[in-house]
Amino acid sequence: MRQIKFLSLCLSGAVLLAACDKTTDDEVNRALQNVNVVDESNLNDIMLTVADPNEAVTYFKRATADQPDRTDLQRGLAQSLIRAKRPTEAVSAYDKLVKMAGATDDDRVDLADALIRAGNWKRAKATLDAVPPTHETFKRYRLEAMVADSEKNWKKADSFYETAVGLTTKPAGVLNNWGYSKLTRGDYSEAERLFSEALTQDKTLFTAKNNMVLARGAQRNYNLPVMPMDQTERAQLLHTLGLSAIKQGDVEIGKGLLRESIDTHPQHFEAAVRSLRALESNVIN
């Protein structure tokens, strides 16, 4: 009887130990899965930010082939294609993404962005029109403004630009776009004001500096504005101003500005030299 009880206790202990081992294995597996998810998430973030864009494309193509139902991986592929400046392929990736169960309105806005980059303005507009009006984001309104610009619907463009500016803490880029819109319409003084405002937000934005010079040149104001610039930037802006003067018919002023840009540049300024030579050769002929 004692042997039976002892055997029962031993069996019970063995079962308990087996159960403990099983529980421990399950917990370990779950912990490892969690670690893998964290590691993969970190790797995805790295691929979308600091990795070489084309390497990121290769990574996400492989990942989506292995797990085609993962919305986050498909989104990563589409975003990495945009980073790699491959918008046509990005459109295809976003087309697949927006049909997946986990797609969001942000994904549809990103599809519109890819379509604009690919030059398909008509479909970009239709894509944005399909996004619910309650989805009010900076990117959505910035794209809406660009589409309105492409249609020369200036009133709507201004409204969208104004809304977009109010939805971001870093409005320099959209202010520059809005200024360029005004520049193309011939509203040079307003364009100059918007470029100045963009530079107040971001003093390093060279496109806004160059655009401001274009706006001033269009008004026959050939003085560089007071703004931060290094020697190379100053030379480039003088070159832009010189070409603008020539376009306005102020050839001698333009030639003087081109010479000044050549003298200002810390290195050989081939573009300005070429412009000046072509101008002088044309005058001689």
UniProtKB/TrEMBL annotation:
InterPro entries: TPR-like_helical_dom_sf, TPR_rpt. Residues 1-18 form the signal peptide. SUPFAM superfamilies: TPR-like. The keyword Ligase does not apply. The keyword Transcription regulation does not apply. Keywords: Signal. This is Tetratricopeptide repeat protein. It comes from Aquicoccus porphyridii. The lineage of its organism: Bacteria, Pseudomonadati, Pseudomonadota, Alphaproteobacteria, Rhodobacterales.
